[in-house]
Amino acid sequence: MARPRFTPGTARRAIVVAKILVPVLAPFAIRAAGYARHQWDAARARRLGVALDQLPAMSGRGTTLYARLSQLAISLHELAERRPQEAPFVQQADGRLDDLSAVMRAAELMPSNRRWAAHKAISHELDMLEAELLRRLGVSRPR
User: pTM of the prediction?
Assistant: First the structure.
C-alpha cells in the first residue's frame, strides 16, 4: 500500500520552511518586480518617443497622440530658438496644440465611436502641423 504524500508532518515541515524562506526571499522578489516594472515603463517610453519622466502624463486611450503633441511642442520651441523670424508661426501652432490638448482630455470621456472620430481629427491636425514644421525647416516630406 502506498503512503499518502501529504500528511500532518509534511504540512508542518512545509510551514516551517516557508516561515524561514519567505522573509529571506520576499525582498528579492519585490526588487525583481520593481526592476521588471521599470524595464516595462522604459520600453513603453522608448516606443512612444518620450522621456521616462513624461510617461505618467501620457495615459489613456490617446497615449500616442499625447506623445505626438508633446514632441511637436518641443520641436516648435526649438524652431523658435533657432529661427526667431518663425515666432508668429510658433505662437499660432502653440495655441493650436493647446486646443488639441484640451480636445484630447475631453475625448477621454467620450463614447468609443466619438472618441475614435476625435482622435482621427486630432491626428489629421497634427499631420498638418508636422508637415508645416518640416516645410519651414526645409525638410522634404516623404511620399
Answer: 0.65
